[in-house]
Amino acid sequence: MLRLTIIFLFLMTTPGLSQTKITWETLGDVRFTDKYSKELDAYFFYPHFGSSVKELEGKEVFLKGYMLAIEPKKGIYILSRNPFAACFFCGNGGPESIVELKLKPDHPKFKMDQVVTMRGRLKLNKDDVYQCNYIFAEAEVYRPD
Question: How many domains does the chain have?
Fold first, then answer.
C-alpha cells in the first residue's frame, strides 16, 4: 500500500503529466512593437513574449474566458478575456486578451459569450499575421477529474 501511495504522489507532482492553470494576467507577459508587412502593406503588432510565457510553450494549460463564435460552421472560435461587446476586436484589450482555439474533432457547439474553461497545448505565434499570438492546439472543454 505504501508503494502505491508513493507512486501516486510521484505521478501527481511530476511536471508534464498534468495541466497548468493560467490566467489572463499570465498571458500579459508580452510586449508589442510595430512591424511592417510588405505582403499586407500594413503594420501589425509583433509580440516579444516574456520568460514566464515562453516557459509554458508546448505545455498543456487551461484558462477560463468568454467564447467568441467567429465562424461556428467552420469551427473557428476564440477564447477571450472579455465578452464580445468589449473584446479585442472591438478595441478593448490587446492581442494578449484572446486565444485562438484549434478544437479537437467532435467538439460541442458553443454560444457567443458562453463562459467556459478550455484546455489545450499552448503555442506561441509571433510571425503568422493570419493567426492569434496565443493558440491552444488540441483544444477542448476542461473538465477536472
Answer: 1
Residue 31 lies in a domain: yes
Render pLDDT for 76-87 as a digit per residue (tens, 0 to 9).
999 999 998 777
Question: Residue holding cell 484589450?
Answer: 93
Residue 123: phi, psi to the nearest 5? -120, 135
Say if 10 falls within a structural domain.
no
In a domain, 6, yes or no: no
CA–CA separation, 32 vs 95, rounded Å?
9
Question: For the whole model, what pTM was predicted?
Answer: 0.83
CA distance 143 to 29: 26
Give the pLDDT confidence score for residue 115 in this predicted structure. 96
4 phi, psi to nearest 5 deg: -65, -40
